[in-house]
Amino acid sequence: MEKDDLLRLSDTQLEELLARLAEAEVAANGHSPAWVSWSGSINAPDGGIDIHVQIPVAQLNTGFLERADTILQAKKHSMPNGAITKEMTTNGVLTATISEQASKGGSYIIVSLNDDCSPTMMKDHLAAMRNAVKDDTCGSNIHLDFYDRSKLIQWLRQHPCHAVGQGKARSGILRLAAIRGLEQSTTRCHRYSYFCPWSDD
């Protein structure tokens, strides 16, 4: 599977994929996937939270999840700096959700499917995120990150079960994954990891 194959995901599929990846990441590090919550509906009010990881441990750093309390915000469209500021603030003030995350010393990650950033672009996006929290009392405590399409495919490749489903592939995406041998890795998957957003089953 290549990173541009992910562009076929809908908003809802992107959110579900991120939730399943978070569950797999948490489980791979010895914790229950039950500590991952998400709305499951793109239309449901979420208070600015798409996926919320809340593990009752003092520290967590898996490489993809760097804090035990992490919010993942899924965005199918591109997120230029102005959109990042709008997402994180209201009338120039940090949103209550992110402010609370900062007070807990948690993490806030924007995942943008349509973005595929150069190092300079990534640096600018992270600067925009830091600028959004700079006036908050606890702004220096929060961990911030921006995941583009390249980062997402890197994460997905760590949990290959999520790239291969049991149903019929749509648009040849799963067929491409199978050709590249990802299906050989399914024997290593957790029993709850068999998710594929393109599956008909």
Question: How many β strands by DSSP?
Answer: 7
How would you sum up the major sheet? 5 strands, mixed
Strand order of the largest sheet: 1-2-3-6-7
Question: Separation of termini?
Answer: 20 Å
The helix-strand sequence is: HEEEHEEHEHEHH
Q: What structural class do helix, strand and pairing data support?
A: alpha/beta
The parts where pLDDT drops under 50 for at least 5 residues are 164-201
Number of helices: 6
**Gyration radius, in Å:** 17 Å
Hey, roughly how much beta strand do the residues contain?
A: 5-15%
Percentage of helical residues? Answer: 25-40%
- What does the overall shape look like? globular
Note down, in words, how this protein is organized.
This protein is an alpha/beta fold. 33% of the residues lie in helices and 14% in strands. It has six helices and seven strands. The chain has helices at 11-28, 81-88, 96-103, 119-133, 149-158, 173-179, and strands at 36-38, 51-54, 69-75, 89-90, 93-94, 107-112, 143-147. A five-stranded mixed β-sheet has the order 1-2-3-6-7, sandwiched between helices. The longest helix is centred in the N-terminal third of the chain and has 18 residues, at 11-28. It starts with 10 loop residues before the first helix and ends in a 22-residue tail after the last helix. The model is unreliable at 164-201 (pLDDT under 50).
